[in-house]
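Q: Structure for this?
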Amino acid sequence: MTGATCFLPRADLDRLFAALRADDRTILGPAVSDGAVIYDEVASPAELPTGWESDTEPGSYRLRETGSSRAFDYVLPVTSWKRYTHPAFVPLTRARRDGSQVEVEAVLDPPPRLAFVGVRACEIAALDIQERAMRAGPIGDADHAGRRDAALVVAMECAAATSTCFCTSMGTGPEVRQGADLIASELDEGFVIRSGSATGAAMLAGLDLEPADPAQVERAAAQVAAVRTRIGDPVAVEGLPERLRAALDSPRWEQVAERCLACANCTLVCPTCFCTSVGVASDLDGQEATTERHWDSCFSLGFGRVAGDANFRPKVKDRYRQWLTHKFSTWFDQFGSSGCVGCGRCVAWCPVGIDVREELAAIAPVEGPRGPIPWPPAPDAGHAPAALTVVAPARHVTTSVVAVTQETADTATLRLATSDAALLAARPGQFVMVELPAFAAPPISISGIRPDGLDLTIRSAGPATAAIVALGPGAQVALRGPLGRGWPLESAAGRDVVIVAGGVGLAPLRPVIEAVLADRARYGAVRLYLGARTPGDRLFAAEVAALAGRSDLEVAEIVDRAGPEWLGQVGIVTHLFDHATWNGDRVTAFVCGPERMMQATAAALTGRGVDPAAIWLTLERNMACGVGTCGHCQLGPFFVCRDGPVFSIAELGTAFGREGL
Amino acid sequence: MTTHDVMALLQGTWFAADLGPRALGHLAALGRFEEIPAGTVVVREGLRCDSLGVVISGRIALRLAVPGSPDRTILTVHDGDVFGWSAVLPRPVATSTGVAVVPSSAITFDGPALRAGLAADCELASALFERLLVSVSRRLIATRVQLLDLYQAGAAPW
């Protein structure tokens, strides 16, 4: 909603501040602090950076005093508005343990009523882009949504630009066209201002301003047009996502990694980066604990780390590639736009002066190839949510352990009782976050779905899983879920089913076996191929022995190594079927195990004629939030927790098994 | 058992299923069917390997001796797999000990006779070495994967 353009005399700026305060809002705006402009609480216009300009270059930011009467000539502050819509620290849960009793409750503080004053066009785009990321998928981030909805935006069109600006290329500025409640342009004598929303219109009406003189409107327009001219068009964005996808093996990644410190400055100052981790704090005896979400970065070494000391992006070049390809390529797949707004903060605040514009031009030159695209588009809306259950992300259901079965030396199955309808509606292949006070919540695949509860089969691999596995009957744990996309059992109806499991990979496949056998007539031949490290590491040994006794399915087991007492097969799991005579055309395969084992299995299956679209596997990545908002588990255009963890080989394309993704 | 019977058994395995009729006939003429009771050592690590076998049924465990501990099974071979492949080498020394862990059967080939046959029949040599290469390559790939010890438990961040 855009009303008449008014003029706000500079001396009357405090009237706007008063109106914002009268609307019960805390005013945030630019202020000089420690030699830089930052966003902070500003009590009055006197605290604005009047008479200051900023000069930025790659690796350099300097404030310069001009003596001007203008308050918004600084171009961009160091910090962005995400400090307030996506704060660096957000409390998530409070948990208590009393003996065996556990209670976890979500913390969702009411959002503050804020007014953002001086928001640039690129930053409005950033607010919009981050909002779409945080609200994407079936589950949105409630904290972010509340904060964004409660914020009022007073935009200020740019009257100056620095050498690091490239909003013009990214299509986000410098003109403000939408997304603000009030839109202002600063002139020497005051502000040309118009409304951009009903809230803004009401506020403007309350100020009872005179209409702006046409000459003032013209000067404001000329001012921002001059900024556009000054910035130019430094980044060739046409075809950039495709060019980047084709450049995953560019030698430039190594070269930039030699300079990059992986300090994460770029992601911290970026107004759209949203990656987070969860920290746990507890009292000494673990009876009271809180969790808190905090900013993290895909540049952090441990960001892609998973169980078994595996790290999917161990090298700096992997992490730089992840960041750059996400910003300028896979962001389109996930959220329908670029993840970059061209504010240039990452350029200015890189301590070694890496200029993203220069890297893009070198890595993905305009004349460079645009294919092959290493992965197909993300699962479409009609496909991805098929097996998803929408749950509130902050819903923690307390469940009770009713039985514990020690499967191997380090792995146990906990049978949990619950009457929670959402948990009982879990689908094979989904997972839950298992919360025990004082421990980080691990994502655990559901290994059994019963009318009165769930089975979780957990390998003790760290402090949290060790504590969970040590629980006895009567103890409680809280679950969040079910989460993720499960196995598409419906796609196997009328077809032969091949199930290949390696090690603890049998756990998420157990519900598939149970579901297939519960509706046996729906499927053709069913073949179960199981691999394990040693005979003593086989999961569900008694159940597997019972299955082997059935006449309506084929079961074969193999172990990597064995002593002379083992008379079964020794070798790798693909040896169980690579010379089999069954017809791959009719097969739908479900595969789970270490990724390298799944690669070999997928190759053996496709070699036997199984369609890659009919080979389903479940991926392991660092799934910290479980709902696609923390960024840890990204693989190409996917968040494994939200878009998977079950994918077909056809969906993953060559992203599957590629080093450093 | 006649050569024709041996041919039929060989043809039923992946190892020899697509051998041409002349090569298959020549190979079958060199082989003989053997029943192998459970526990029989068919080849012993480090000793001369005097025969190549193609498993027809059952399971042969290939084991390595580990001083101070029991022998370790590193692979089992089944229908169509071979044991004693070193028999075709100029210096035929077994690389593992093969033990039938269940009652098994195989078509076996006398090493010197087979080597002479291969030297005299290029078509047979080409076909057999190709299949042996496939078999040995399959083991090499498996060994590489086993070396990765993929299922080994490791530390986790949680």
